[in-house]
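Please go through this chain and its backbone structure tokens and walk me through the local backbone shapes. Keep your notes short.
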Amino acid sequence: MASTPPSGLRRTLGVHDAVIVGLGSMVGAGVFSALGPAARAAGSGLLPALAVAALVAYCNAMSSARLAARYPQSGGTYVYGRERLGAFWGYLAGWAFVVGKTASCAAMALTVGTYVWPGQAHAVAVAAVVALTAVNYGGVQKSAWLTRVIVAVVLAVLASVVVVCLTSGAADAGRLGIGLPTGLAGVLEAAGLLFFAFAGYARIATLGEEVRDPARTIPRAIPLALGITLVVYACVAVAAVSVLGTDGLGRAAAPLADAVRAAGAPGLVPVVRVGAAVAALGSLLALILGVSRTSLAMARDGHLPSALAAVHPRFQVPHRAELAVGAVVAVAAATADVRGAIGFSSFGVLAYYAVANASAWTLDTAPRARAVPVVGLLGCVILAFALPVASVVAGAAVLAVGAAAYAVRRWMAAR
């Protein structure tokens, strides 16, 4: 399983590299954008919501790790669902990934706009999408060294936010009191929104063909990356709440910039804005790449229009898929708000991981081995339907459209 087939990708990533990839996908723009909407939903239940999101993410991560070790090839749950549950479930996971991550692209673009030029956030977001689509069209991809640079910059900015907030005279431990002012429903809604910030750990699993000894490396790298991310997010949440309170955090358009301003360090605000922009641009670049490549694979399998399977003869990129993804993301970035994009994205991604957990459930019949995927599956379903009503309705409708398209295609093929 660890050998590289003649037509496969090179296995060059060890545990350290895989952890960096996971951190680059998780410790990014999500923490700059998701804390505000989550605080608005949960109030003083924000920290319990973070714990719930982390628990569901952990179960999903372990299920993904087991599946990736069994199927060390690119594609993630699109492959796992197909192999363990059948062609339809693999297709549905791929469809959920494409629509969910397309919304993630819009959320990242809007995060760039909100931090760079709040008064023209939508215009900046569209410009960012157009620019990165052009970069991807030319065949430029984010390399390992760029991921390390982005992770280092973001961690340095977040560390500065935590230190400045917690050591300022504006910090008040009384604001950290935990309660349930919006009830359990508010905590679950916030957990669903915060899940958006954790979802990048699957990037490790989707690199199954490029990891050395995947049966050992992937199960070690995913929990390590997830654990580091949880610690970072918890520290940032505590620091921000200590100076803004959950009400102030919920009202903030750019939560971490507002937090350092309230802490009496206005000079740090431009640094935070640059850090958020770098993180969001890095995430957006990787997301556009991932969605376009998944669209390419689904088009090759006949699940999306075959025109999207075209590869540019010069640049060797799926240029039609990239242009289609860029166009859809640009429209979404021009019309959506951050909370709506995050909610819709979370619904699609939670549906994707529900299929992953169901696939992992089939790997072993022992009750103890099945406990984690059961908790993960239930968590995904509960958090998905606890999201804002508009996100649930839109997400369920899009999944239904995808399922209907699959049924019609099968019916036409049968005839």
Q: What stands out?
A: The two ends are 40 Å apart (CA to CA). Residues 299 and 306 are 5 Å apart (CA to CA). Residues 1-9 have pLDDT under 50 and may be disordered. Residues 214-251 form the longest helix (38 residues).
